[in-house]
Amino acid sequence: MSHISDAIRKLREELPSGVTLVAVSKFHPVEAVIEAYGAGQRVFGESRPQELYSKIQALQSMQEDFSDVEWHFIGHLQTNKLKLVLPYVSMVESVDSLHLLSAIEHWGAANGKDVQVLLEYHIASEDTKQGFSREEILTLLTGDAATGHFPHVRIRGLMGMATFTDDESVVRNDFARLMSLYEEIVALKESGIYKDVLKDFDTRSFGMTHDYRIAVEMGADMVRIGTLIFGERVYF
Ligand SMILES: *Cc1c(COP(=O)(O)O)cnc(C)c1O
To answer: What is the mean pLDDT of residues 26-48?
Structure first.
């Protein structure tokens, strides 16, 4: 058995049934996606618009039917790239600014589509990672979003990336902050005040190759795993 299908099979055995595995195929050729597909994987993550678009085109040009592949966009998305991404993805996990959320709403309205998104919560201690602060997320949900500014956006939950470190306590601390904000938002949802904007809020996407076990233990229901499945990324 190849490494890719072997890794997917092992992950499927290991992950609890309620956890969605997003296979992160960025920086790997479309052949790797096809191999994972052959092993039963259906949800894939990409972080660059052009690369995502090229892979979708390549799959569409093939004889085999890959139409049940579900793509998640997980990288920084510039608003001038929306048309390469939004027609093809089932979720944008990496909404990291009000500006992007507004542009997605605009695209959804113009195209008559609802777009599923996660809000990226900046939990890592590095400054380089994208994302909202806790205050920004709460302000967004109880302000603009609650008052109906984003009718074509379905806010499905939170996404986060822990600090890149071998110190497990730091990673646990980052993930705990995401879980705590998630629970705070679910309490708002249950209060009934924000039930329209929060009605679809049910997803916690955190955990990657080096920390997915901790993530699952702490309550993630979506993990995004690249290297463990596909090997080291190939820059092409
Ligand atoms: C690349 C990437 C992943 C996967 O990382 P691995 O360490 O290869 O598992 C997950 N999430 C995001 C947002 C990424 O950019």
So the answer is: 97
pLDDT number for residue 234: 80
Least confident of 32-41, 184-193, 210-219: 184-193
Q: Which domain holds residue 149?
A: 3-230
Whether 182 is covered by a domain: the verdict is yes
Residue 149, domain CATH: 3.20.20.10
Q: Which atom of ligand 1 is nearest to the CA of 224?
A: 10
Whether 131 is in the pocket of ligand 1, judged by its Cβ within 6 Å, is: no
- How many A from CA of 87 to the centre of ligand 1? 22
Nearest-CA residue for ligand 1 atom 11 is 224
Ligand 1 touching residue 26 (CB < 6 A): yes
Phi, psi (rounded to 5 degrees) for 158: -120, 145
Using CA atoms, how far apart are residues 224 and 76, in angstroms rounded to an integer? Answer: 15
> Using CA positions, which residue lies closest to atom 13 of ligand 1?
74
Q: What is the pTM of this model?
A: 0.96
Task: Give the atom of ligand 1 at the shortest distance from the alpha carbon of 233.
Answer: 8
Count the domains in the chain: 1
Pocket of ligand 1 contains residue 161 by CB under 6 Å = yes
Over residues 52-73, the mean pLDDT reads 97
pLDDT per residue as tens digits for the range 209-222: 999 999 999 999 99
And the tokens for 28? 């790997």
Radius of gyration of the chain (CA): 17
Helix (H, G, I), strand (E, B) or coil at 214: helix
Residue 70: phi and psi, rounded to 5, are -115, 120
**Does residue 74 line the site of ligand 1, with CB under 6 A?**
yes
Give me 70's structure tokens: 């579900």
Is the pLDDT at 49 greater than 80, yes or no?
Answer: yes
What would the mean pLDDT of 17-43 be, rounded to a whole number? 97
